[in-house]
Amino acid sequence: MIQVATQRLCAGVGHAIGLIFVLCFVFTTAAFAEMITAEGVAAITGNVTIAREKAIDDALRRAVEQAVGTMISSDTMTNNFQVVHDKILAQTSGYVKSYQILKEEQVGQEFRVTVMADVGRENLQGSLEALGLLQVLKEKPKVMVIIEEKVGGLFGTTAWENVGQAESTIMERLMAAGFNVVDPATVRANIPRDKALRLLEGDPKAAATAGLQYGAQVVITGRSFSKNAGGRLLGTQMQSIQATLQARVVRADDGRVISSRSEQGTKAHIDEMQGGALAIKEASEKLSDTVINDILSSWKKEVYGRSQEITLVISGLVSYRHLAAVKKFLEGDLQGVKAVHQRNFTQGTAELQLDYAGKTSVIADELSTKQFTGFRLEPTNVTPNRLDVRAIIGR
Fold first, then answer.
1. What's the whole-model pTM score?
2. How far apart are the C-alpha atoms of 88 and 102, rounded to whole Å?
3. Structural domains for the chain
4. Of 73, 168, 236, 304, which has the fewest CB atoms closer than 10 Å, so is most exposed?
């Protein structure tokens, strides 16, 4: 409905003022590109035409640099400037879809050009990811993998045996994709059996707790098993082995489920155990690729999106008026906060959901230095998606 109305509006003014047409074009393409105004400068050392072209190139490079700046922090830009410059800023043609010269003039021995450039965000995102900066932007989160695995019907019996194929395959795929992975053997040696069973049963809270305990921001838990699919293949000693793998990906700081997937694998083998392991490996490879894409997609929304969901838990409140004061500060004075949603308030503890374009560490810094009337807030836990603070009464 909005899109139709927009198209009619743009069509109606298409033969009027050119600037209005540009604004309509920007509105209808905002989801796919970013219109940026930038100025370029070049020294005139001889031919003015050459200086003009150089000024245009400089303006387009600055436009792309501005677009990159909206996606990554200044610290990341500084620490990775050379890589970003060589791979992105030096090749603006692949990111600028079109541009319009708004102003050009010769000032002394310099030529100055102001452009409005249509910069494609999707291409930039792809390049930043290829440079490995997405995980840098997410502060290189660790991933913990816990998969219960069983191979059934060994050598025609009803026995089961753990072989660890799913865990090792998923970990290999994660590490190949640049993820930091927690050693599952260490985790298994220290997690009590009852908690491990809850993890494998897909309890998001148990997974989140275990992840935080071992410094993991993402936890992958699940079950895999293989079995003989119907005896030996006709005229051979080979057996058809089928495997099923089910897994869930959970964010450790707030227990939010990122992905829930299931895959299957089939192998023909003379040995049930080896065939079962190979079938599980096949299923694990399929699932790993899908899960990695799900994780990266989730991170893209948080890093490149205009805002992300941040859970803010405030404890120690002695009055609802204190909570109202915090909400007023968040909604009116903290830059980057799009909306504040109150989830609950029980016995002095409140849980808020923030739509916020930025990092939780920035919110923690702002709240820790803000002097509210009669109390202040002290951060006690800061993770990428959750912030816990405690109200301290008095100054």
1. 0.55
2. 24
3. 32-136 (3.30.1660.40), 139-304 (3.40.50.10070), 308-393 (3.30.1360)
4. 236
